[in-house]
Specification:
The complex is a heterodimer of chains A (about 130) and B (about 260). With about 130 residues, chain A is of the alpha+beta class. Chain A has two domains: about 1-35; about 45-125, Immunoglobulin-like (Sandwich). Chain A has one helix at about 1-30; strands spanning about 35-40, 40, 45, 50-55, 60-65, 75-80, 80-85, 95-100, 110-115, 120-125. In chain A, strand 1 (about 35-40) and strand 2 (about 40) form a beta hairpin. The termini of chain A are far apart. Chain B has one domain (about 5-245): PAC-like subunit (Rossmann fold), CATH 3.40.50. In chain B, the strands form two sheets. Chain B has a nine-stranded mixed beta sheet with strand order 1-2-4-7-8-3-9-11-10, sandwiched between helices. Chain B has a two-stranded antiparallel sheet with strand order 5-6. The chains are: A alpha+beta (about 130), B alpha/beta (about 260). At the A-B interface, strand 4 and strand 5 of A face helix 8 and helix 9 of B.
């Protein structure tokens, strides 16, 4: 009897652990998925071309996203990483996605960005060295 | 492949001609190769669309990387093609020129123009510049070699490329032009270094129009600029890699000498 009691406890614990693992796996898969629904067509994710220029006070990043739909544009920054994502208004289902790593003296908290003719300009000031 | 009527071989570079042709005077040989901002490629691509020249030949380079062949209506063509319209001979390339082919190709172009008695070689190129963003309109500069070339640029009303470094096939052609008794005009436009730049290409076409007196409308090029950038992305990516290999970034650095 003792043995069966332990076995049922073990089964319960294992099933809870399995559920937790499944949740983790599905979360990870969801985060990493590169396919999303856009109408009935699956989105194609493309990494846009980009260039970085610098002067004494700031870095200027230009991300080339021809036909980019400004309404869907998101620019997120944390640490020295800037994430850019936007849908294309010209090619159906095309999504631009780019992760940019900036030099360590970039101050992303004061980041500003604007769009001109499908080119995204991101200006990031440099932290003053003491 | 169209029937070849003549072949000229210069150290690994072969000029092919599909017909007997004469380039009318004053003759211009326009060179548009993939480089900074793809200015050369985009501008000659637009000229070919607007002027509707006929394809009269091509250039084949041994061991060109990537090993590509262009196919048109099922038939192969070399990746570098020659087009002719009256007094304008146009060279267009589908792939960037690898560093190992730059010297042979530049010398072959010079020898070919000497043999064909071409009056002017006109190179169209972008020069990566931070002021491309500050100035709304990209500025065009000239650099030239040869007495007649210098006379021609003087009447264009654009500034000389005051000081800087040029790297690539255009640099070799410019430097060696006088040894081949050639007249070379390089039109350089401020552009993004590694993003396709149709707006800069439009500016350089305007100056080329003035130089040759042939009107070329650029409105279509500007209208379709975003589509062109979308189409040329992969060529730009590959070109940027080749430019890195040959140290193109040195162009952005001012010369060390003060004289």
């Amino acid at each position: 009897m003792e043995f069966e009691r332990y076995l049922s406890i073990l089964k319960k614990t294992l099933s809870v652990k399995m559920m937790e693992l499944q949740n983790i796996v599905s979360m990870v898969i969801h985060e990493q998925t590169t396919v999303e629904e856009s109408g009935s067509i699956e989105a194609v994710i493309r990494e846009p071309l980009s260039t970085i220029m610098e002067d004494e006070d700031s870095y200027l990043i230009i991300v080339d996203m021809p036909g980019c739909d400004p309404g869907s544009l998101t620019v997120n920054a944390y640490g020295t990483i800037v994430n850019v994502r936007s849908k294309s208004s010209v090619v159906e289902g095309l999504v631009y996605e780019k992760k940019l790593r900036l030099p360590s003296d970039a101050d992303v908290s004061k980041l500003e960005y604007w769009i001109e003719r499908g080119r995204l300009f991101i200006r990031v000031p440099r932290q003053k060295q003491h | 492949m169209p029937r070849i009527v003549r072949e000229d071989y210069y150290e690994g570079v072969t000029f092919l001609e599909y017909e007997e042709f004469e380039v009318k005077e004053p003759s211009f040989f326009v060179i548009g190769l993939p480089d900074a901002g793809l200015v050369g490629s985009i501008s000659v691509g637009h000229m070919i669309r607007e002027l509707k020249p006929r394809e009269v030949g091509g250039i084949d380079i041994e061991r060109l990387m990537p090993p590509i062949v262009l196919v048109k209506q099922g038939e192969p063509r070399p990746p570098l093609r020659l087009f002719l319209k009256d007094n304008i001979l146009i060279l267009s390339s589908e792939a960037p020129i690898p560093p190992s082919s730059i010297y042979p190709l530049s010398h072959a172009i010079l020898e070919y123009t000497a043999k064909r008695r071409i009056d002017y070689i006109v190179s169209l190129t972008g020069v990566g510049s931070p002021s491309r963003i500050k100035n709304g309109q990209p500025r065009v500069f000239w650099s030239a070699n040869g007495r007649r070339a210098l006379e021609e640029v003087a009447r264009l009303g654009i500034p000389a490329f005051d000081e800087g470094i040029l790297i690539g096939p255009y640099a070799i052609i410019l430097k060696e032009a006088n040894r081949f008794l050639a007249n070379n005009i390089v039109l350089l436009v401020e552009s993004f270094p590694d993003l396709p730049d149709p707006e800069a290409a439009a500016e350089v076409i305007k100056v080329f129009s003035k130089l040759t007196g042939i009107g070329i409308d650029v409105s279509k090029l500007l209208e379709e600029a975003e589509m062109i950038r979308l189409k040329t992305k992969e060529l730009m990516r590959h070109t940027a890699r080749v430019m890195n290999q040959m140290g193109k970034s040195m162009e952005m650095q001012p010369s060390l000498l003060y004289t």
